[in-house]
Amino acid sequence: MLFDISDFATQDGPGIRTVLFFKGCPLACQWCSNPESQAFFPEPLYHSELCIKCEACKEACPSKAISFDGEYRIDRSKCAHCSSHECVSACKTSALVLAGKEWSVEDVMARLLPQRGFYQNSGGGITFSGGEPLAQAGFAFALAREIRDAGFTLGLETCGCFPPDLDPEGLRLIDFVYFDIKHLSNEGYIQYTSRPIYPILANLSRLCDCLGAEKITLSLPLIPGVNATSAFIDWVANLAQSNGITKIRILPYHEYGRAKYPCLGKTYALSEVPHLSDQELSSFAEALHGRSLTCEVLGI
Amino acid sequence: MERKADFIRREVQAQPSTQRISQLRQAYLSSPLHIDLEYIDLYTTAHQASDGFNPLERRAFCHAHALENLSPQIREGELLVGAKTRFVRGAIPYLNYACQFVIRELNREAQEAQDKFTDIGTGGGIDLSAQLAKAGKYEMFGKKFLISRSDKEKLNELAYYWQGRCMQDESDRVWKESFPQAEFIENGWQMGLYTAPHDPAPEGRFVLDFETALSEGLLGVIARAQKQIELLEITDFASSEKLYFYRAGIRVLEAAINWARNHAKQAKKLAKKEQDTFRKAELLNIAEICGRVPAHAPQSFREAMQAWWFIYLAGHLEGAHLGYSPGRFDRYMYPYFKKDIEAGKITRDEALELLEALRIKLTEIEYMASFSWEGLGSGNLYQNMILGGMDENGHPADNELSILVLQSAINCQTTQPTLSIWYDDRASDAFLMKAIDCVKTGVGFPAFFNTKIYLQHELEKSKLPLATIRKYAAMGGCTEPTLEGMSYGIVQAGFINHAKVFELAMNGGKDPCSGIELHPCELPQNPAQLKENYLYLLQLSIRYWQRYWNYVMAAHRNSCNLIYCSMLVRDCIGHGKSLDDGGAIINGSPTTLSSGMVNVVNSFAAVNELIDTKAISGLEELRRALKDNWEGYSGLHKKALAAPKWGNNDSRADLFYEEFFNKYCDFVAEQKNYLGEPYDPSMLAISTHAPFGKACGATPDGRIAHQTLADGVTSPFPGTDVSGPTAVLLSAGKIDHTRIRGGLHNMKFLPSSIQGASGSRKLLSLIKTYFDTLGFQIQFNVVDSRMLRSAQEKPEEYRDLIVRVAGFSAFFVELGKSMQDEIIARTEHRL
Ligand code: SF4
Ligand code: SF4
Predict the structure, then answer these.
(1) Which letter does DSSP use for residue B390 in this model?
(2) What are the residues whose beta carbons fall under 8 Å from the beta carbon of B202, sequence distance 6 or more?
(3) CA distances from A35 to A39, A130, A263, B352, B750 (A)
(4) pLDDT tens digits along B714-729
(5) Which residue minimizes the CA distance to atom 1 of ligand 2?
(6) Contact B408, B355 (CB under 8 A)
(7) Average of pLDDT values for B404-417?
(8) Among B15-29, B36-50, B363-377, B544-558, where is mean pLDDT lowest?
(9) Diameter of chain A by CA atoms?
């Protein structure tokens, strides 16, 4: 299941890429900018600027999950995810849309193949992102095989939380990996992402063994107040070196996801987060350079 | 677009390379817009004195007299001298072309039928004019120009002199009486089927033969014409017209030389008074240069720059031009540059300063047209300088000067001339990367054009040798290719509103908005009948529109024929004929621009879908829904919106585009222009999509009444390109652009999505991939937070702006206000 397909992506690996966003993630990072990516099932997603407050959705819901107190509210505990998503069909203005759709491998390929010129001319390809692509390993590997056959490169963005016994043949279809590292401690991982760190670190060394460390980049979402510290950077440098990894990517924190939470009936757990200054960012980058690691800071 | 302050860190930004250019640019930015009567006053005096002349000689006499007597313009600190008017930003009212819109404005009468559909800009220099008018010294003329009280009286007097004499009055007198379909045209104007008559600014879209004019000097050109006179034997009307043409041509070229020499005198005078020894020396140098060029061939790059400007400007003064363009500047100027650089006579920095100065010169020119045309053209002059391309042997032609021209635009950001690139995979990396750097400044150019597509078009159309087409392929106007120095430039009647044709087709030839019955045909009951109606009415609308325009061109030939420009277009001298008599090598003209095709395509796709899915039983129900602007039909509206749409690489819609596009090209080419050549189809939209949309009711694609139409030629209708930017390009690439001269595709980006050299290369691969299809043109907007703010205010103009941020992508205007604010804050935060 995917929740979005994004063409002409330029920040998710070399060249012009199409990013496939897989729906469903075992982690629940508090800063997640795609909260609709977390659940493994389709969910109604609300866009207040399109809503005309006709309350047709409320009438239509068999579980009485929707209420209006001036604003649309959905009670996630009541929403039964009725298979027909009555609320979405009832909305005439497309203010409610369904995030998440089952795709067949053929349909995805039919969507990708006409774009081969863009991939080939730019040295680009496809990137799996999410959500956690490897949480749907069967679908992901089937797709990966087709992508390999079509001659496109394949990238993976992973949070590292996936089953330890994945088919190595499947994994080897991946050309490069962005592996997220979110915190330096187990406590931090549990607090901010709801999962322990150990299986993730074990998966990292497994991936390095399977693909070769040169194909792996550690990807750091830097959140002031959570992990934007030189201690974290230092720890990451050690981690990289012990695994033979040489590339780091920094994703400066942004709040663009915040507004989506209420629309899903979720709450954004982080309070005000200060912006990272260019200065701080470059001092982190320099520290990594000092440890002989290459570091790319993504723009926003 | 006016940019007041640059407060956003863009990836590429620079300053004018010298203090002098900064000051000149500042002077431009802080100038209001003025009307200058000097030229037209002199022209009118000459006109009064030349009653009874042969029309060609009279036209030449008037322009020559005006040119020779204009006060020479040398502004403080200038290196390149000469200007179209006495004001930094001035416009000439070309009353000899059209005076009625001026008279109506003076009388504060309502203008044309189209005015009710038009908006024009109000910011920047226009705002400044309004403030000065309020302060009392000047009055406003139209919506943006200043005029002093005494000049206003003068303007009134001049305008009334031209009443009944100007080109428009002359053509109106004839076609309104003798053109059998005159009523069709006037009704078409009433209902917004056509754009307003553009007699006030009909010229342009061509490039002079600068190469020859520079290398021979104007005296050399005169000598060639003189030679022809000597060889001529007068035996009939045609041969005597040749004689008149040569005499006329020599007269204007001499005037241009005298006009340049007036600048030499003026420079000497200024030098005498000048205290600053440095400037004094500069002025003496200017005097020397203006004494020599453009009469003689320039001896240096510095002289070539001044000569070029004089040659260009004298032609600009002659006509009411839009799209009059510099062409392949980096090709024909390169020999002068190369010679001086190699000889150490000039440094790259000095050359750069001259190129920057030229940008300001070209930006200073303003024009005056009727209100509705100013709205449509957004006040832009469409002077297009195109770089790169191929040489006659098919090798990439870009050179060091091409890169410097790009650098001058990066350093000295002005709106004119717009830069374009004839894209070639093999062009040097430094050139292509510099072009992307220029895009990254946020100016919106250069635009990229697919060389191969135009070569194919012109090979088939003109049958000229491939080597000639390669070498002279240029751009005359915003996106209309032309063969430099050898093409006729007066073009077309204006735009056709496809959405209106569709409405008429849907309603049996009657316009549901105005109630006017344009051309009765059967009320369609099914999609097949609807299509038949549409194509029939489209063919008629094009046919009558073009035939009407030929009446105007007949009047143009007699009153506003371009004599100076004819002398500098091949092969008018060889043929002994002016441009309007077919003297050029290429006499076909690009024409009948069209707007709104995408809405028609989507409408047909929607009608099919609604009938196939049995959402409607026939067209009657749909007609009612459209008449009621979908009110009470929300279910049907939602289905219409969900029907297949152009821009998603979906053949259910795209096939309609291909079909209608090809028909449109056939219909246009069925007609002949004033010179007896088939019209050459072209497609662009400038700003017509807003007024044309305003004139139309709801359409089956789900568009509501009066909503702006899809802009450009291949841009999807806002919000319907749900499959992303690459799918849009795949749709656009199916259109056979070799059939037309023109076409345009807009994309917008946040700077971060193409940052760094790797980002630039991604953009280049995007261009390459698009140009591997049948695509013709692509241009990019790299947005900053200023633009994002403006997108918040005017979401309808930024419907296709994609914000790609680390985690997800979205159409900016679809984001909630809070999220938009966050993105803006963040963009600014990274200052
Ligand atoms: S998806 Fe949830 S909120 Fe919507 S109708 Fe079904 S149960 Fe109600
Ligand atoms: S049905 Fe749609 S428009 Fe109506 S209240 Fe619900 S979300 Fe808003």
Answers:
(1) B
(2) B97, B320, B490, B491, B552, B556
(3) 8, 10, 10, 52, 23
(4) 888 877 777 777 888 9
(5) A91
(6) yes
(7) 91
(8) B363-377
(9) 61
Length of chain A: 300
User: How many percent of chain B have pLDDT more than 90?
Assistant: 69
Helix (H, G, I), strand (E, B) or coil at B509: coil
Nearest CA to ligand 2 atom 3: A51
Given a contact cutoff of 8 angstroms between Cβ atoms, the answer to whether B225 and B214 are in contact is no
Return the axis-axis angle of helices B597-612 and B619-627, rounded to nearest 10°: 130
Pair of tokens at residue B528: 């097949």
Residue with the larger pLDDT of the pair B492 and A297: A297
pLDDT, residue B492, reads 73
User: Looking at the predicted structure, is the pLDDT value of residue B8 above 70?
Assistant: no
Beta bridge partners of B386: B420
CA angle, B316 then B317 then B318, to 5°:
90
Q: B123-170: per-residue pLDDT in tens?
A: 566 667 777 777 777 888 887 889 998 999 999 999 999 999 999 999
Residue with tokens 């053929």: A106
AA identity, residue B299: Q
Q: What is the CA radius of gyration of chain B?
A: 26
In Å, the largest CA–CA distance within chain B is 86
Say how far apart CA B532 and CA B530 lie, in whole Å.
5
Q: Could you tell me the sign of the dihedral formed by the alpha carbons of B23, B28, B29, B32, in that order?
A: positive
Can you give the three-state secondary structure of B273-339, one letter per residue? HCCCHHHHHHHHHHHHHHHHCCCCCCCCHHHHHHHHHHHHHHHHHHCCEECCCCECHHHHCHHHHHH
Ligand 2 centroid to Cα of residue B548, in Å, is 52
What is residue B246's DSSP assignment?
A: H
> Can you say whether the dihedral through the CA atoms of B254, B260, B261, B263 is positive or negative?
positive
- Please report, as a single letter, which amino acid is at residue B19: Q
Residue B511 CA neighbour count, 13 Å, CB half: 21
**If you ran DSSP here, which 8-state letter would residue A50 be given?**
G
Inter-CA distances, B780 with A48, B15, B234, B444, B750, Å: 30, 22, 56, 6, 10
Give the mean pLDDT of chain B: 89
Distinct helix (H) and strand (E) counts, chain B: 33, 19
Using CB atoms within 10 A of its CB, is residue B413 exposed (0-12), middle (13-18) or buried (19+)? Answer: buried
Angle of CA points B322, B324, B330, to nearest 5°: 140
Contact A122 B752 (CB under 8 A): no
B497 vs B517: CA distance, rounded Å: 16
Q: Which of B596, B590, B330 is nearest to B478 (CA)?
A: B590
Determine, for residues A122 and B816 on separate chains, whether the beta-carbon distance falls below 8 Å.
no
pLDDT in tens, B234-264: 999 999 999 999 999 999 999 999 999 999 9
Q: What are the tokens at B732?
A: 């656009």
Distance of CA A23 from the midpoint of ligand 2 (Å): 24
Which token pair is B63? Answer: 């322009």
Distance of CA B397 to the CA centre of its chain: 25
User: ipTM value of the model?
Assistant: 0.83
Between CA B12 and CA A297 the distance in angstroms is 18
Query: Does B772 sit within 8 Å of A8, measured CB to CB?
Result: no
Ligand 1, pocket residues at CB < 6 Å = A 44, 60-61, 63, 65-66, 74, 79-82, 85-87
What would the two tokens of residue B119 be? 């908006």
Q: Is B565 a catalytic residue?
A: no
- For residue B808, report the phi and psi dihedrals to the nearest 5 degrees: -155, 170
Nearest residue, CB atoms, B819 vs list A11, A18, A256: A256
Q: Specify the ligand 2 atom closest to the Cα of A90.
A: 1
Q: What is the mean pLDDT of chain A?
A: 91
